[in-house]
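Per your request, structure below.
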């Protein structure tokens, strides 16, 4: 997989990951039935025939175990089981579309918004970052950006999903960082000590199948986000900062995630902020029973800072 990532970089690969709804709509066009180039193969997850990829790239994909043969009559037909997106000049491998497996590794517009929130927080961080953690790291995108920005810091990439940690490790090596390590477990399970910088982009939807990468638990998917706030507070070193990017279902004009987080944070007396960065995401979920009383799902960024 590392060789595949490097092969894509050598070919100046670039792809912005879109929402599943956009992906579905674009791929449904008649002219997009078959892949024509490497972006179609590794970005749009389209079927492809021999000759679409150059021999070196095709070999790298095969050796990475990223090519699945499809049972279709006629010529050989393949599909890539990995996708590649670009962010901050780096290539991040993640799961192919559609992300249906329970342990799928998701990358999309949330990842770009999360990365921007992390950059903003780092720019205003009150002190040096010696130890950082990316909780629910997924592809590792945010943690790797922290590692690149803070080369002297030790950055922990933590996730309950072993498939995510495998890809996060590959993506870290592909980015050339040597200051990351991986921890398999639920939130801070198996991770000792305190941190100067904690970032998290957890699953925040209610998923009928309770898939790990998507299901947040609680009433509207906020359960895991609230656990992260609660568990992060004792893990912040003096001067440490938490950056949580997540989603919140708004019901009757009320943001219940904000209200519950405020109860925890106000007790600390620490400085904290909460802002909407997109007022309406995953609108298609409102047709599900769990959201029958919700009017929208907002993408939010919560920051909390422990006094030095």
């Amino acid at each position: 997989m590392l060789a595949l990532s490097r092969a894509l970089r050598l070919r100046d690969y670039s792809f912005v990951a879109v929402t599943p709804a956009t992906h579905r709509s674009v791929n449904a066009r008649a002219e997009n039935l078959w892949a024509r180039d490497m972006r179609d193969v590794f970005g749009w997850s389209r079927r492809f025939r021999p000759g679409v990829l150059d021999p070196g790239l095709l070999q790298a994909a095969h050796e990475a175990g990223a090519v699945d043969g499809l049972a279709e009559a006629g010529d050989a037909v393949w599909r890539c089981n990995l996708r590649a997106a670009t962010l901050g000049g780096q290539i991040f491998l993640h799961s192919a579309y559609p992300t249906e497996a329970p342990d799928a590794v998701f990358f999309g517009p949330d990842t770009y918004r999360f990365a921007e929130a992390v950059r903003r927080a780092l720019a205003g961080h009150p002190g040096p970052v010696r130890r950082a953690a990316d909780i629910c790291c997924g592809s590792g995108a945010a943690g790797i950006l922290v590692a690149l920005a803070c080369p002297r810091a030790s950055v922990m990439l933590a996730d309950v999903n072993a498939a995510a940690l495998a890809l996060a490790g590959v993506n870290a090596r592909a980015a050339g960082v040597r200051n990351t390590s991986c921890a398999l477990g639920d939130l801070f399970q198996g991770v000792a000590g305190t941190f100067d910088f904690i970032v998290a982009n957890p699953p925040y939807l209610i998923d009928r199948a309770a898939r790990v990468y998507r299901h947040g638990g609680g009433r509207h998917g906020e359960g895991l986000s609230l656990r992260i706030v609660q568990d992060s507070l004792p893990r912040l070193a003096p001067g440490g900062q938490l950056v949580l990017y997540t989603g919140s279902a708004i019901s009757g004009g009320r943001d219940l995630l904000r209200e519950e987080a405020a109860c925890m944070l106000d007790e600390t007396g620490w400085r904290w902020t909460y802002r909407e960065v997109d007022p309406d995401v995953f609108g298609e979920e409102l047709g599900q029973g769990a959201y029958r009383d919700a009017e929208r799902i907002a993408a939010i960024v919560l920051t909390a800072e422990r006094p030095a």
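The two ends are 42 Å apart (CA to CA).

Regards,
D.
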